[in-house]
Amino acid sequence: MPVTDVTTDAEALTLTLTADFAAPVERLWEAFTDPQQLERFWGPPGWPARFPEFDFTPGGRAVYYMTSPQGEKSYGSWEFLEIDAPRGFTVLDNFANADGAPLDGMPVMRVVFTFEPTAAGSRMVNVSHFASADALQQVVDFGAVEGSTMAINQLDRVLAGLREYAAGKATQTEILDDTHVRITRLIEGPIDLVWRAHQEPELLEKWMLGPDGWRMSVCEVDPAVGGKYRYEWEPIGDTEGERFGFDGETVLSEAPRRAVTTEHMTGTDYPSTLNDLNLEEEDGATLITLLIEYPDMQTRDIVLATGMTDGMEASYARLEGVLAGV
Predict the structure, then answer these.
(1) Which InterPro entries match (predicted)?
(2) Three-class SS state of 137
(3) What is the pLDDT of residues 285-322, one digit of tens each?
(4) Which CATH code fits 3-160?
(5) Phi and psi (nearest 5°) for 24?
(6) Cis status of the peptide bond prior to 256, with omega within 30 of 0
């Protein structure tokens, strides 16, 4: 992972994050100063960022917000104080309202981004300066250490490019914490088609089948927020197994980039999961990122032990074939 150290210093009133990358300083600079690239990593998993305003000039301002799986938005703003391309820049970082105005009573940070070359590529040192120990502790209590670490650890795939990042990889499953798992798979195909393939029953029936020997016997989908869905599968031929299914509803929909749904095993009293689907396109290929929130670690481990990753890989490989014929 890129992040190598996160340190808080109550005497110096600083929070320092250090990360190393296998990319030159100029490439790192580009990722931090292009809002479209910033949006691909700045928000931690489950809270993707958007930068509707980005005036990268001394005295200019950027406004961003991060959206939770339930649709809650958290706003922030940067005032650019100093810019020294490509070595770094300094911002005044505020918690903000929907208009980008600073929130009263919330900490204000002076944040210095520094980029320097290393033998293997480049290093980012991000130092946040606080006005008081209480302000520093307040930000730490908000989860800034964990959130910043998870956000910056997503930057590798942006710097490398999606095809290089995913080269030789099939479906990847990462355990993020006790209740969160992230699944990624690069699909050859544009984002609009990949989105449709997750929303339209006539396409879902062709690829969301898991291992060979199963068919989707029920596929009912209302992709609107609050809409319900129901899937059922049954074995065919000599395949062993029993009919099963899932049901749930759409919590958030931001076509064609994000859909959040609940998922419950039909006919059981098992607790539901929250599935946060994000799509990201680059050069005709789309990265699928599925963040799954489980109710507890035990449920997480039971599901992972079923061979879920292998079944998803079979489905995603089939999806590429379906998209080629659309």
Answers:
(1) ASHA1/2-like_C, START-like_dom_sf
(2) helix
(3) 999 999 999 999 999 999 999 899 999 999 999 999 99
(4) 3.30.530.20
(5) -70, 160
(6) yes
